[in-house]
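We modelled the chain as a single entity of 636 amino acids. Its sequence is:
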Amino acid sequence: MSNKTPSKRIGKLDFQTIKRIFSYMSRYKKSMVMVILCIIISSVASVAGSIFLGTLIDDYITPLLADPNPVFTGLLKALALMACVYLAGILSSWLYMRSMATIAQGTLKAIRDEMFAKMQTLPIRYFDTNTHGDIMSRYTNDTDTLRQMINQSVPQLINSACTMITVFVAMLIQSVYLTLIVIVSILLILQIVKFLTGRSGFYFMRQQETLGDLNGYVEEMINGQKVVKVFCHEEKAREAFQEKNIAWRDAVTNANGYANSMMPIMSALGYIQYVIIALVGGWLAISGATNLTILGTGTMTLGTIASFLTLSRSFNGPISQISVQFNSVIMALAGASRIFKLIDEKPETDDGYVTLVNARENPDGTITEADHRTGIWAWRHPHQDGTITYTKLRGEIVLDHVDFSYNPDKEILHDITLYAEPGQKVAFVGATGAGKTTITNLINRFYDITNGKIRYDGININKIKKADLRRSMGIVLQEVNLFTGTVMENLRYGNPNATDEECIAAAKLANAHNFIMMLPQGYNTVLEGDGSGLSQGQRQLISIARAAVADPPVMILDEATSSIDTRTEALVQRGMDKLMEGRTVFVIAHRLSTVMNSDVIMVLDHGRIIERGSHDQLIAKKGTYYQLYTGAFELE
């Protein structure tokens, strides 16, 4: 059991979150009005049945018992009338529940659409600092609790409130004295409800938090199952899972323990109230005491007592429902707050105004914009005076005294300066954590630099729109991500307008064509589970071919051939050499054989460039690169 004590604020409704949820439901205003009307009709029909019970006994059944020749016509008409009232109540209940299902699903669709749209705008930093399982939990568990609240709790609460009002008025019509007994018992019940909901509310919020943590861990273990088995970490993984599972179990147990105890407690109090009303009502009827109602005075009859007893049970029922649904609302609001926290995350900022366009080069050397893919790219500069100029994309990238840190207290890159000339192949070599991938992340503006400048064709990359900046660069990562769909669809991912012939040519360039043709449906083979049916090398070849289809002016190869065997690597390297022709290329590699033909090799150590030059120049220096190449020491 958790030893945390409920906060004083726990159990109180978060009205800001409620207001926000209803703002999504506001597009269904007409449906909501109809739902409320149907709920009122349903509540009135239910109360009418309880009131009719007294009339039925006093005005129809008792006279018929005393009549030696009873006529049942009036009784049958009254019963038929009540049957119609009940039927109206049943139809109203069906209609509002059906409408609420439509409202709930439509509202959740809008929320999920906004969540996903917002997720596409979030910076890479967000996904680096939040587990994927926890993010997924917001799409699944949190939205499901919200669905239950909108679909069940909201109409139930409205229904209960309407029923309580109509029943309370009906009880005052029957007897003010007996109503006072109900009010006293209700005040006692409300104190118990306040205590229990305060306790359960805290644990319902804990339940959502621990469930997100648990899902995040499970997702992490699924992705890393091979590593778990290789290092025989199964027992440790099981222990860590059990710890998180216990935390979730304790939160759920406490939440539902307090919530579920509410109904039996309230039922017991309801039975006590029932007995007291029966005793007091019976005494008033036998003693012939005056029965006070809001309509006047009269005598207490058997029908009045029977009707009031039914009404008192109808009054307690909604209170029980409200207390139960209140916990569901607290849990849903906890989930909704997590959803809105994602939606409210600060999006990736982009102050760029320079865009990338297809262009054509005129005989006089000027650049003009084209409306189709020409193979020539240009930067489009809008100026304050309304004029537009074009600069041909050459692929020159300069890092000028760049510093960077993920966290303010720990600097990762120190005074990085490098020049990548158009068409040049620049390689980064260094131990893990030296900052190789970080440099490419900065060029892509996945992260923004702390100090210094990065220029692309002489343009500060802060002035280039991020989408256009990234569109000009193709990336082949060490960790391959393939998406559910055909091989052809995966190849076309970076260039949706590419023809089948262009995709096949790119696959041949990356030496992926032969194994693709051996798949069951060739290029139309559907890949599922991140291409789980393919070997790591085959997945990487598709990734390289995908980059080739995009045909970007700048390429970043981050350990692109690390998952390919030496023989295949030699074939792929020839294809990649063709792919890199005429492009500025950044290569990150542990295998020095893949960077030997680079124009410039940068050796990094703890975020600093300690050596730079061609392969021959660095070998001649007999420094760190020479030691790595000759095997004097290895990369960590």
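As a brief sanity check on the tokenised model: Residues 1-11 have pLDDT under 50 and may be disordered. The chain has 18 helices and 18 strands.
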